[in-house]
Amino acid sequence: DTGVSQDPRHKITKRGQNVTFRCDPISEHNRLYWYRQTLGQGPEFLTYFQNEAQLEKSRLLSDRFSAERPKGSFSTLEIQRTEQGDSAMYLCASSLEYGQVPYEQYFGPGTRLTVT
Amino acid sequence: DQQVKQNSPSLSVQEGRISILNCDYTNSMFDYFLWYKKYPAEGPTFLISISSIKDKNEDGRFTVFLNKSAKHLSLHIVPSQPGDSAVYFCAARDGAQKLVFGQGTRLTINP
User: Fold this and answer.
1) I want to staple B30 with a disulfide (CB 3.0 to 4.6 A). Which of A33, A54, B65, B92 is the partner?
2) CB of A116 within 8 A of CB of A103?
3) What is the nearest CA distance from B42 to chain A, expressed in angstroms?
């Protein structure tokens, strides 16, 4: 399977705990994106990387959120001191961007976070 | 501010007929539009896209139409099949490369 993979698929945590999610993009893709989706809404952009550089962060990404892509391959998204409002599906996507030619973003299955 | 809107939360269509899903946007700087399909417990799956310089793109049973003056796009599925039952998201790409999604439309194909 050469698609985008995410781990874990489900995470239940208590309020105040830290959680970390992992995303493995399609191997030749140089861009990696994180989105968050809540019930009844479309995915909302959080941040994206071109290779290892984090190029944009949404205002949705509070100081408790941090994302890394240390070697330009897999990425991690960490949420510190989780709150109930963090409960959502966290989606990772990747794309191949070359110059100005746009390519579609391909999504992983997501990590569903429940904060109790 | 909702820059991409899908005003119909749900749509029911008979098998074999045409399904038309609609999407409106407000930002004239969007340069690329995409449709994604989503099943429960899965991530969105890319369906079809269209550049802002075109008005139509076709791929098999799926056709996307773009009306830039009206800031409106639509996805046509002909003929509709039971496997098309899913939530469909319209998305637009801004100059910063991120996607802005609509709220989704749940399509149900009735046999």
Assistant:
1) B92
2) no
3) 5
